[in-house]
Automatic annotation (TrEMBL):
Belongs to the HSBP1 family. Pfam families: HSBP1 (PF06825). It comes from Dorcoceras hygrometricum. The keyword DNA repair does not apply. This is Heat shock factor-binding protein 1-like.
Length: 87
């Protein structure tokens, strides 16, 4: 190899290194953007669930059913009684 080929090889390696570093930086930026978006959506969903729970509790209070069991608990109790009768 003469000096010219060695210089071209170093330039090619340098160009490739710069390309890969740039590509990795772009990927990291996109990953960070997506991560922030996902976290934002999760926070938004959590807030909406909290609002929904509050609305349900408000409705239950308006209907005077504060101390009554939830429908799923009533169904479970009924199934438990049926199982005991079948024994």
């Amino acid at each position: 190899m003469d000096g010219h080929d060695a210089e071209n090889s170093k330039q090619c390696t340098s160009d490739m290194t710069a390309f890969v570093q740039n590509l990795l930086q772009q990927m990291q930026t996109r990953f960070q953007t997506m991560s922030e978006s996902i976290i934002s959506k999760i926070d938004e969903m959590g807030n909406r669930i909290d609002e929904l729970e509050q609305s349900i509790n408000d409705l239950r209070n308006e209907m005077g059913q504060e101390g009554s069991p939830s429908p799923s608990a009533s169904l479970k109790a009924r199934d438990d009684l049926k199982s005991a009768d079948d024994s």
